[in-house]
């Protein structure tokens, strides 16, 4: 079992082997223990500077990374596009080069364009973590989801996971499919015909347009949000939110009609009453807050492992 990652950056799940993912999850176990102690801070990233560069709005992911970095004793700088020169026409590379000139070792970036993190990694010396690039990938979300499933079931292999909702526009869905498949889970994508791309079946996942059937099949349902901001002004993908909720929303009545337990997940932010009812989101079946808690430990593991493989003399 190796104790180093086979990658310098975390741009997408494809950068990781199953062994790398296992190493991240095992390392996160240790950090989860640290987070449960009265002294929740370790010196692992002392003298390492991390820049969180967010070109797209985020609350939980940015906070989760920042907390992870601070628990590891890193120096942290934050940058968000709304308060920056990007509004004045500066390019992504200019912005990033300016930040790196200040001797930053690791960059955590969220950007609205798919491929932005790959571009950045090609043009900088720093290690890059993709915190979400358009509808492309969100690898740390998939890792924390896998961690949460493993915590609940004691394993990921063989667990049946249905990912429900706006698959077409969801970076969480794509990263989850890749990550879960690498770990041997069975994956189903469920949603309206218009929100599941035609090529999805080629990925070796099951496809369903019937939520009740999906729920009867799965052990875990990951209920995704409708990504309104990515659906554009063209023809609507479904007739109305009300109809969407009737067909693809999970409420207590639907859950109880199953007569079995299904673990409920959601990456947040939740649109309560649309993809999941409030009472189900807060029910004993839901592990939504455990996901948030695990997110800090998993991000600590990713930061720690990427920094451990760093040539400290060559970097900043
Ligand atoms: C997700 C994202 O930003 O892709 N949220 C998150 O990272 N917490 C999912 C979403 O926005 O629906």
Q: What does this entry look like structurally?
A:
By secondary structure, the chain is α/β, with parallel strands linked by helices. The protein has two domains: 13-137 and 294-307, Rossmann fold (3-Layer(aba) Sandwich), CATH 3.40.50.1370; 139-292, Aspartate/ornithine carbamoyltransferase (Rossmann fold, 3-Layer(aba) Sandwich). The chain has eleven helices and nine strands. It has helices spanning 18-36, 60-71, 92-100, 116-123, 139-153, 171-182, 211-217, 241-248, 252-258, 278-281, 288-308, and strands at 49-54, 75-80, 106-111, 127-133, 160-164, 186-190, 206-208, 220-223, 263-265. The strands form two sheets. The chain has a five-stranded parallel beta sheet, with helices on both faces. Helix 1 (18-36) packs across helix 11. The radius of gyration is 19 Å and the shape is globular. The two termini are 30 Å apart. The mean pLDDT is 93. It binds N-carbamoyl-L-aspartate (NCD). N-carbamoyl-L-aspartate is lined by residues 60-61, 132, 138, 141, 171-172, 225, 267-268.
């Amino acid at each position: 079992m190796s104790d180093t990652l086979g990658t310098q950056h975390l741009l997408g799940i494809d950068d990781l082997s199953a062994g790398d993912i296992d190493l991240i999850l095992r390392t996160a176990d240790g950090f989860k223990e640290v987070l449960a102690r009265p002294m929740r801070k370790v010196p692992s990233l002392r003298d390492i500077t991390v820049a969180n560069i967010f070109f797209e709005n985020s609350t939980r992911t940015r906070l989760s990374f920042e907390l992870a970095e601070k628990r590891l004793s890193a120096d942290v700088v934050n940058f968000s596009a709304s308060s920056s020169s990007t509004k004045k026409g500066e390019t992504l590379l200019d912005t990033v080069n300016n930040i790196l000139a200040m001797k930053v070792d690791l960059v955590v970036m969220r950007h609205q364009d798919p491929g932005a993190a790959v571009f950045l990694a090609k043009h900088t010396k720093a290690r890059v973590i993709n915190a979400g690039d358009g509808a492309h990938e969100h690898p740390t979300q998939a890792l924390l989801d896998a961690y949460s499933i493993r915590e609940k079931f004691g394993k990921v292999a063989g667990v049946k996971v249905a990912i429900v909702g706006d698959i077409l526009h969801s970076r969480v869905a794509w990263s989850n499919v890749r990550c879960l498949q690498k770990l041997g889970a069975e994956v189903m994508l469920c949603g309206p015909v218009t929100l599941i791309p035609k090529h999805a079946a080629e990925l070796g996942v099951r496809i369903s347009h019937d939520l009740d059937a999906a729920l009867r099949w799965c052990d875990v349902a990951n209920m995704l949000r409708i990504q309104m901001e990515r659906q554009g002004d063209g023809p609507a993908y479904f007739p109305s939110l009300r109809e969407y909720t009737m067909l693809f929303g999970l409420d207590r009545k639907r859950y109880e009609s199953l007569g079995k337990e299904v673990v409920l997940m959601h990456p947040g932010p939740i649109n309560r009453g649309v993809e999941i009812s409030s009472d189900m989101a807060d029910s004993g079946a839901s592990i939504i807050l455990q996901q948030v808690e695990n997110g800090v430990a998993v991000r600590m593991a990713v930061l720690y492992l990427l920094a451990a493989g760093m040539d400290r003399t060559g970097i900043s």
